[in-house]
Amino acid sequence: MDSHVASGHDRKVWLLALVPDIRFGRWLSALALFTLLYGAFRASRVFEESDEPGQAAALFFCIIIAYIVPVYHLITTHTISAFSELEPELTAPPELVQGWRNRIAHKPPLWTWSTLGFGVAAGLLHNVLLAGSPTVLMHRLATNLPASALVFGALLVWIVMMFVVVALIDNARLFNRLSMHTTVDLIDPGRLTAFARVAVASTLALIGAQAAFPVLWVSPDSSVVAMVPGLLATGTPMFFLLALPIWPIHRAIATAKANELRRINERLRSMPRVGDQTADFASLNQLLSYRREIAAVSEWPFNTSVATRLAFYLVIPPLTWIAAGLIDVMIERLV
Q1: How does pLDDT run across 275-318, given as a tens digit for each residue?
Q2: Which residues pair with 277 in a beta bridge?
Q3: What's the burial of 294, exposed, middle or buried (CB within 10 Å: 0-12/13-18/19+)?
Q4: What does the alpha-carbon distance between residue 313 and residue 238 come to, in Å, rounded to a whole number?
Q5: Rounded distance between C-alpha atoms, residue 183 and residue 327, angstroms
Q6: What pLDDT band is residue 334 in, cutting at 50, 70 and 90?
Q7: Helix, strand or coil for residue 111?
Q8: pTM of the full predicted structure?
Q9: Nearest to 104 by CA among 207, 10, 206, 201
Q10: Comparing 324 with 93, which gets the higher pLDDT?
Q11: What are 90's strand-pairing partners?
């Protein structure tokens, strides 16, 4: 069975259950998650007893989880909508198409447990790097409540982000495979922009996550080890989220366009002639006009709106990093 086809044993990704299916559900989820996490860190005395980098880390944990969960829900909704738009162009049995649709929000148990395992492993490794050794980490867990809260906070962030990243890549791979079952209509290629919208929307989650990292830079004592692993874990997948859905459909459009232009040129060459002139001028003009239309078709599934949105998203993290740097300089001068 296709690895991207949902089965009866698949379950909805647990992060989606954290967003209530009501009006403003995503905003309410973000507020509830932030309040819950902030309250937990406050109860653990992180903001009273931890140093400045520890307090900044706790605030970062609250922000990024409160952000990523509703945004992942939003992107999943957009992905399902894009899939629905593509359905009329899919050349596959209805039951297979339905399985692909279900797989966007539902994953098999093996996927869930393996993703959880990777998230826990990555979180533990990062905590060991921050502590310097497993022994120091265990000592902090046993003797220091605020430090323990920060350890579990980092672990939770890694788990949540691992589920988001792996789910988005899984959906990007699904759209990668859809290109092999999609009819390319060169006269009306508008539906194919669904591939680009999924790619761009999927990068939004990770771009927004990167925009939250300046929170860790509030303190001049912030460790590079605290930021670099997270930046790499969110930055590297962005390339795959963009390329996986877009590249194969780009090749499909380019191939269909080249084949159609070749067919038109063959018809032009085969038209009856009188001397050096084509006998049927009406057909000639129609073919020449049609060739111009086909030649003008973009080989990429982008339109102006999607391309503008992508450009806007890509400048968000650098702007937040620059703003954080300027604020840091101003604070240092004032102090």
Answers
A1: 556 556 777 788 889 999 999 998 988 876 666 666 666 666 55
A2: 274
A3: middle
A4: 12
A5: 52
A6: very low
A7: helix
A8: 0.86
A9: 10
A10: 93
A11: 182
Residue that has been written with the tokens 């339109």 in this structure = 303
Rounded Cα distance, 111 and 166, in Å: 9
Residue 107 β-bridge partners: 11
Cα gap 308→317, rounded to integer Å: 16
Residue at token pair 């988001």:
164
The answer to whether the beta carbons of residues 57 and 146 sit under 8 Å apart is no
Does residue 273 sit in helix, strand or coil?
strand
Q: By the 8 A CB rule, do 53 and 221 touch? A: yes
Look-up of token digits 């949902």: 6
User: Which candidate, 301, 333, 334, 318, places its Cα nearest to that of 82?
Assistant: 301
> Kindly report the CA angle at 238 between 303 and 121, in degrees rounded to 5?
155
331 — pLDDT class (breaks 50, 70, 90): very low
Dihedral sign computed on CA atoms, order 110, 114, 115, 116: positive
Number of Cβ within a 10 Å radius of residue 36: 12
Q: What is the DSSP string of 172-214?
A: HHHHHHHGGGB---SS-GGGGHHHHHHHHHHHHHHHHHHHTGG
For 227-249, write each residue's pLDDT tens digit.
888 888 988 999 899 899 999 99
